Predict the 3D structure of the following.
Amino acid sequence: MDDKIQKTSVAIETQGFTIVTNGKSREKLIGKSVLHLYPYLKQLESIDGVLANLNVELTPVKSRQSHLINFIDTPGLVDGELHYPFEIEKAIIHLGNISDLIFVFFDPIGQALCKRTLNLVEKLNNLYNERMRFFLTKADEAGDEPDRQKIMMQIVQELCKRKGLNRSGFDMMAIYLPNITGLKQREQMCSNQIDDVCQEINKAIVLHLQKTFNTMERDINQLDELADNKLKTFNTDLNSNLIKFLNLFATSSGYFLKS
């Protein structure tokens, strides 16, 4: 996205769901307008309070594939007495069910490893393991390379303590926003894997298109078979009714001739 849409400070600042997508002009949609644009989100309406905290940010994007992508930003989770105006875990799990990829961002200066976050990540991983991707965000603010590796190891160790997240080949990418001042100096200090994230998204787009075309082909074949069966049934019924009519007509004619 070429526009600044979401805040980039600590994760706890967002308390609602924001869908970021391509549009002809900069615009914001809220409430039921979102459901008109995305009918597949209608089930969220059954979760009290979600609709009032759901909005869409439309922004013009030059990228050729941008119209194929919807980014959904979810609220940051914290432990303690913070009250959310809806069942946040239930809503996030529902969104995970309809998503092609689930990105989990761990902020080195935020509350990345709070119990509430890890519990939810474990549930999502148990349900949608193949969609999960893990990232260390603001990697350029995590100190030098040894400090950064130490932070990543701490996060991975905390994740792997949980049975639902303990897996071989655990991968975590280090990313940060490239459009910031002093970028060249930051890149020298910390490599940015954000291009790998873009590749993951591109792969997901291609896979989703393949699945869509496969589903479309299957549906077309089913409709063709259904139409063919209907036509055969119609022709059979038509012939049967015609024979009955002719027999009736012949019988009636014979009766009149006899009379």
